[in-house]
Amino acid sequence: MVDEFGPKSQFVAVGKRNLDDQGINIVTGKYDFAEDHHPEGKLYARVLGAKYAHAKVTSINTSRAEALEGVEAVITFEDHPNWSDTILSVDQQIAAVAAVDEATAERALDLIDVEYQVLDAVFDPEDAMRTGAPNAGTFPDGNITPSPSALERGDVAQGFAEADVIVDETVGWLRPHTHNEIEPDSTVAWWEGDNLYFNIGSQWPWGQRNGSASALGMPLNKVHVYCHGTGGAFGNKYWAKIDIEAALLSKKAGKPVGIKLPRRLFTVYGNHQYAVKLHMRLGLKNDGTLTAVETTWWGDGRSNGGRSSWQDPCRHTWVSPNFKKDEWGVANNKPRAGAWRCVAHPEGAFLSDLVLEKAAARLNMNPLEFRRKIFISDGMLDQDTGRPMRTPGWGTRQCLEKAATVIGYESKYHAPGTETLPDGRLHGIGIHAHADGHGSGGGGSDSSVLYMLRDGTIMFNSGSTRVMGGPGAQSAIIAETLGMKFEDVRCADWGNTVTSEGGGQFGSRLTVAAGLPVMNAANDLRAQLFAVAAGDGTDMLNVTPADLDAKDGKIFVKSDPTKSVTHAQVMRVVGGAIIGWGLHPGGNLRKPVGEFEVGSPTVHKAGCASAAEVAVDPGTGQVEILSYVSVLDAGRVIDPITSEGQILAGMPLQVNQALYFDDIYDPVTGRLLNFNHIGDKMGTTLDIPVDVDKTDASCLLETIDAVGPFGSHGIGEPAVSSFVSINNAINNAIGVDIITGPMTPQVILQALGKA
Fold it and tell me: Could you report the per-residue pLDDT of 286-307, keeping only the tens digit for each?
């Protein structure tokens, strides 16, 4: 890919280790979150959840709660546009109370009298799929519904007919787990006349505004959302789950109302990662060439009929001219499934890679060599569209090779179950890579407004929120475009009341979808600056704008850099502020790039890979990670500190997905039992033998992106998608194929016939 932005060495802000002072405020405890907002007269609310997992509310009486001293408002499902008397999971919201303090609100919940018609429930997705299973209440005709994302290309039957070897495997279920970020959902709502205001922690304040306005039947310009900080999100705060009830209670009480979910309800109401099962058939030549791929996916989640992203890691990574996939949503009465740091790709990568390992074994091929054989390579066309790919293989091959090199895979690989360490533990090595379908510019539109002030410094507004990243990358893009110092660029605020529209911080879209608007706004402002600087005026340069460039806080004549003016000098001539405006129109980046067409699915993918070396105690099933490497293709790295942080913070999550995370539900009530994870084994940074000062421990590759600002794309979600290398290493160590996750000591001992 041609780098239209020039070599990395020429940049002064992009790719540099700039310190974001707003980030410093977060880690030093000075940053404000939604819960820190206490307007005068604020009431405190609590939400009542249903007692049963599947039921019909036949009556609800709130009179005793309303009579309790200190209670100022009560609502039920009859008042709430998004609540229902039909209960599909335990603790589903059916009422809420606002009182002078949280303790009073909690006591009031116990005084709400509810009667139910209890219905049969089903919690295990395998049970839900069986003939005669209780209807979970989501779909009218059973618990299974087809996804609208079925796909077939080529001639699958002919592909299997041409195969020398057919691998036919069923793997899963990959068991779900919950979000449990540091900050629970928290919202403060208040009214000023017919205007509604929120202070909220959300990944998408504009979506929050749109959804709240729609639910309440209000004009969009009457709903205002302030979003100053979010203490962890990961897809769980795509929108707040308690905004409408806060607004309704505030309206009824005539006072501001704040709701902070207690840990149990926060966990229950949040997204739960999908439980997923896969049946896959692979047609293969003896040399490893794929002739056909056929997949059927089942996903546990009543709120989503199926996720087209489950199959992306194999569909967009492997060369398979003949491909067919079907997906089925499996309804049950557990809490809803949804985005968990990445929508569906971790689950899909995990299960499909287990089958890939089995295929390599059938062919007697080294797993690394097998991947080299089937992975998309340079110069290939997209298999779905026939269009050229954005970058050669989205950096996937490069990530694979880097991971293999850093961990020493080729020298350490051995046949499964054949190597024992001196202390008696079993040694294993594993590898994985795929093209992750995120790092995108998709979603809603984004815009930005830049103000160059009288002293030549910049204040800018962005519709994106501070969740994991922040304005550091955007500030670097602005500074680089305008030839300024990073520290002279500041982000003004967050939230839709004071900013331009934003499509939300999710899908690893921030760098691209928020970076392009600020780049466009900076270019708009740059043109205005150059027009003034080029003019025939006091201290101005008397040239054409095309003769100028900017660097180090100066605008200079390219043919004679000694002739220059500072940004401040230009602003003194202007006499006020200059405003620049930029837009990203949303969708799949509506910008043709070379041969790429609008809406091409090839626009944004991010290569990711990992490699793991483990020791497994055959007596206890305990796993020690001896060595681990995570590699990401970031396009051009805009903000190295944040990018490295994404990888290093993602590595414990990878370990937990591979080894520990497992939701435990009561088989009778469907209630989540380990909502606070007390007693759960949790992996931390101490479980990963990584020296954060060694660049090879967490690797960022740069394969310049055709669309992103300065050639960049996002990596937040790919940073947690490639954990299956740990599981592959475990299977390599024990010589037995475990086909589910997480691979806990109990699961390992069962595989070894010892439990």
Answer: 999 999 999 999 988 654 444 5
Angle formed at CA 531 by CA 526 and CA 532, multiple of 5 degrees = 100
The token duo for 173 is 């279920």
Task: Evaluate whether 513 touches 705 at the Cβ level (below 8 Å).
Answer: no
> Residue 604 is encoded by which pair of tokens?
């944004």
- Cβ contact 407:367 at 8 Å: no
Cα gap 511→470, rounded to integer Å: 10
Contact 329, 148 (CB under 8 A): no
Mean pLDDT of 89-110: 97
CA atoms within 13 A on the CB side of 265: 20
Q: How many CB atoms lie within 10 A of CB 643?
A: 24
Q: How far is CA 519 from CA 473, 478, 515, 538, 739, in A?
A: 11, 6, 6, 29, 46
Length of the chain counted residue by residue: 755
Q: What is the pTM of this model?
A: 0.92
List C-alpha distances in Å: 126 to 99, 133, 215, 743, 744. Answer: 43, 10, 35, 19, 20
Q: What is the rounded CA–CA span in Å between residue 615 and residue 419?
A: 10
CATH topology agreement for domains 8-31+441-584 and 275-440+599-751 = yes
Distance between CA atoms of residues 562 and 556, nearest Å: 7
- Work out the angle at residue 92's Cα, subtended by the Cα atoms of residues 90 and 96, and round it to the nearest 5 degrees: 130
Cα–Cα distances in Å, from 692 out to 324, 614, 641? 42, 20, 12
pLDDT tens per residue, range 1-35: 445 667 777 898 999 988 876 677 777 888 778 88
Is the model's pLDDT at 723 over the cut of 80? yes
- C-alpha 81/C-alpha 410 separation (Å) is 59
Domain boundaries, the chain: 8-31+441-584, 34-119+185-260, 275-440+599-751
- Residues 347-374: tens digit of each pLDDT: 999 999 999 999 999 999 999 999 999 9
- Please give the helix or strand (H or E) that residue 582 lies within, else none: strand 578-584
Asked if 510 contacts 438 with a C-beta cutoff of 8 angstroms, the reply is no
- The listed range with the strongest mean pLDDT (138-152, 499-513, 610-624) is 610-624
CATH class of 34-119+185-260: alpha beta
CATH number of 275-440+599-751: 3.30.365.10
For 8-31+441-584, give the CATH class.
alpha beta
Give the integer Cα–Cα distance in Å for 580 and 384. Answer: 39
Which residues pair with residue 658 across a beta bridge?
none
